[in-house]
Structures are given as structure tokens and as C-alpha cells.
Specification:
This protein is α+β, with helices and mostly antiparallel strands. 22% of the residues lie in helices and 41% in strands.
């Protein structure tokens, strides 16, 4: 169950609301390899642990887009809207990958609601999402995510 569950009528009052942090997800080599296969991105810094030992990060790292793809499951832990017929991932605005995510790391996401607006009979929510790496000061990524909720 998400941290915050609201109805459509409550959405306009949520601007500026800090949704808190999700639970941590471990970034395993298996997760990285599965993502590489699904996206045909098998660059050695992600998929070759032996070669990566001598690479710039000393180990394999998660794809930036793997980290970004976690926005949906992690956001689902934080927030939901009841009483709608459809929930749509409308897209992303600014995305920055600010630190590598080494294999074995754990990441979580913090989210803040920046805007809520009515658009074409639906409600659009814009959030800033920060992907934190456990034990590291610098986040892995920061992304502006947009979702629409259709009554």
C-alpha cells in the first residue's frame, strides 16, 4: 500500500507535498544483465565484471536508464490516486544522471509533488524524483516525472 492514497478531489491541495522515500532496491548484476538483454545495451561497464574491475568505476555499474526505469515501482510505493479509470505515465522532463550506481548498491527514490493541473479532463501531476544511493551523498539521478490520472 502506498504511503499516500488520495482521491481526485484532493489532488489540487498536494502541490509542494513531500511524499518521502521509498524502500531500497538492491542493484544486482542479474538485474543489470536482464536490463542489458531487454534493451540491447551490453556495454562492458555494465555487463563484464572482470573487465570492469580495471575500468573507471572499479566494478560494473547500472545503466542510467535502469535507474530511471525504477521510477514507476518506487513511485507506486509512495503515491496513488483512487477513483480514476486510468493512470498514465505521461513522460519526463529534465533528467540528470549525477552519479554511477555500482553493482551491489541499494537505491531508493524521494519524491516531491511540484505541480497539479487539470488537463483535457484529466489531472496531471509533476514530481521531482531523486534517486539516492545508500551511504552516498550524491544522488544517482534526478528526474522530473509527469503522470496523468483520468477520472
Amino acid at each position: 500500500m502506498p504511503n499516500l492514497v488520495v482521491t481526485v478531489d484532493e489532488l489540487p491541495g498536494l502541490v509542494g507535498r513531500d511524499l518521502g522515500a521509498s524502500s531500497y532496491i538492491e542493484i544486482t548484476q542479474e538485474r543489470i544483465d536482464t536490463f542489458a538483454k531487454a534493451t540491447d545495451d551490453d556495454q562492458w561497464i555494465h555487463t563484464d565484471p572482470e573487465r570492469a574491475k580495471d575500468g573507471p568505476f572499479g566494478t560494473t555499474i547500472a545503466h542510467g536508464f535502469l535507474t530511471l526505469s525504477l521510477v514507476i515501482p518506487l513511485w507506486g510505493e509512495l503515491f496513488d490516486v483512487e477513483g480514476v479509470s486510468t493512470k498514465v505515465n505521461y513522460g519526463l522532463d529534465k533528467v540528470r544522471f549525477t552519479a554511477p550506481v555500482p553493482v551491489g548498491s541499494r537505491v531508493r527514490m524521494r519524491s516531491v509533488i511540484d505541480a497539479v493541473e487539470e488537463v483535457k479532463g484529466s489531472w496531471q501531476i509533476t514530481t521531482t524524483n531523486t534517486f539516492e544511493i545508500e551511504g552516498q551523498e550524491r544522488p544517482a539521478a534526478i528526474a522530473t516525472f509527469i503522470a496523468r490520472f483520468i477520472p
